[in-house]
Write a structure and sequence with these properties.
The chain has ten helices and 13 strands. With 288 residues, the chain is of the alpha/beta class.
Length: 288
């Protein structure tokens, strides 16, 4: 048995997903009078993928009245034809949970697989590089998106505005002429347990805010990252350097090699789903 974590969505949220797809029953299955016939369903990886969402899929089938079991855990690297999940029950229960469970696993698997690819690329450039996912998820799906990023080996940049101190240019617009040192000192007095992150758009801005805990270099080229890291080191800055804006699996290695310790990415949120194949079996048919 795989070592599973509890679903990140509670039963109420999972019921809402099912109700969205089956608001007034399954018309086709009921009209064919096959709802009570016994059967089983199996999910397989069609593509190589980092699995995610299998725990939620299992619970969806259980809520429909079927017995279900995960064969791998979220975070598993699966090759094609890997058995991911199987469930047994009435045809009605299996059809009710089928598409919602499949789509959830495909969507989560797409994010997790993309995150894993970026992590692998970044660590080819620097074994200690970290990849952090942004909060630019489809609204209403943050819990699943966070789970998928973590399944791919990434961490979260921030889960919401209540969590971190991240100063954007849009914040600095309202600070007037306050020197950067005063702004940083004020925030450290106000939130002594938090690190201060500052997003900058130019190497000059990075040096202005060199005393921040983390400098987030927005849309810098790899050459600019390397130059900025060298300038910060010469100044004696202890700031962690992060790169953000356009980070993906194709360029993550170069950014990490240029000196970005943290790579902040939105790309997995936009990744295509990974294909999960579904096979039904009729328990009354001796051929299956």
């Amino acid at each position: 048995m795989p070592n599973l974590n509890p679903p990140v969505l509670n039963d109420q949220a999972l019921h809402q997903l099912l109700t969205e797809d089956v608001p007034f029953g399954d018309l086709t299955t009921e009209s064919l009078a096959i709802s009570g016939k016994p059967g089983s369903i199996r999910f397989f990886a069609r593509d190589p993928m980092t699995v995610c969402g299998v725990e939620e899929a299992v619970r969806l089938f259980q809520l429909c009245g079927a017995e279900a079991e995960a064969r791998v855990a979220s975070g598993t690297e699966a090759v094609p034809e890997t058995l991911l999940l199987e469930a047994q029950g009435s045809a009605g229960a299996l059809h009710q949970g089928w598409k919602t469970a499949q789509t959830l696993m495909e969507w989560c698997g797409g994010i997790a697989s993309s995150a894993a690819a970026i992590v692998a690329a970044a660590r080819r450039g620097d074994p200690n590089a970290m990849v952090a996912g942004t909060r630019k998820n489809v609204p209403g799906n943050r819990r699943l998106a966070v789970k998928a990023f973590k399944a791919g080996g990434a961490v979260m940049h921030r889960n919401g505005l209540s969590e971190t101190l991240l100063i954007f240019a849009e914040h600095r617009l309202f600070l007037g002429e306050e020197p950067s040192k005063e702004t940083l000192a004020r925030l450290r007095r106000q939130c002594p347990e938090k690190r201060v992150v500052v997003e900058v758009a130019t190497p000059e801005e990075a040096l202005t805010w060199a005393e921040a805990d983390v400098l987030q270099l927005e849309k810098f080229t790899t050459e600019q990252v390397a130059e900025t890291v060298a300038a910060l080191t010469a100044r004696g800055s202890q700031a962690v350097v992060g790169a953000a804006g356009g980070i993906n699996a194709k360029n993550a290695e170069d950014y990490a090699r240029a000196g970005a310790r943290l790579l902040v990415t939105t790309a997995p949120h936009l990744a295509p789903p990974r294909d999960v194949q579904v096979r039904f079996f009729n328990a009354s048919d001796p051929r299956t």
